[in-house]
Write a structure and sequence with these properties.
alpha/beta
């Protein structure tokens, strides 16, 4: 039985992520989607929220498991002796350069860690969690970019967060005598 892991922060999960999950789930007997914590990132959604979003978005894909891990991917790979390969989605050459380095780092840390790259489909190649957050910041339509089953939850949360941040910034500028 071939098992792969697909790691990421998924903050939030996008249709690009879901596309890679769907395609990878057809290549392997089991796909473990691992929500990782990167201490260099600030998250909009908690680890539990990101896991729940992924569970909801993948509920119709029977061979997908959702997990979370706080640590090095190579360590998680080592803990899961049933895992054969790491799956990474690639949107552009900039993704490849970074992921290529990470693949070699993982291999250096764990010699059995092999990485397989799956290119993003044309319809999702430009979709990223950061882009989703920017669209939400200006109350744009997220329905094309995030799974429909969690679209409203993501939109509501991001819109509320950005409205609160915008209000705080306006107060800050007003106190400094800066107006619109």
């Amino acid at each position: 039985m071939k098992t792969a892991i697909y790691p990421g922060s998924f903050d939030p999960v996008t249709n690009g992520h879901l596309d890679i999950i769907q395609r990878a789930s057809k290549m392997f007997d089991k796909l473990v989607v691992v929500v990782l914590i990167n201490p260099l990132k600030t998250y909009s959604f908690s680890m539990n929220e990101r896991c729940e979003f992924l569970k909801e978005a993948t509920r119709d894909i029977p061979n997908v498991e959702i997990a979370s891990f706080d640590g090095l991917l190579a360590d998680y790979f080592n803990q899961r002796q049933d895992v054969d390969v790491i799956v990474k989605g690639i949107r552009a050459t900039t993704d490849f350069e970074y992921e290529f380095q990470m693949a070699h780092t993982n291999k250096d840390l764990n010699p059995r860690a092999e990485t397989v790259f799956i290119p993003a489909s044309l319809k999702t190649t430009f979709v990223s969690s950061s882009m989703v957050k920017q669209v939400a910041m200006f109350n744009g339509d997220l329905s094309k970019y995030v799974p429909s089953c969690i679209h409203e939850q993501i939109r509501t949360r991001l819109t509320q967060d950005f409205d609160a941040a915008r209000e705080l910034a306006q107060k800050k500028y007003k106190n400094k005598g800066i107006t619109d």
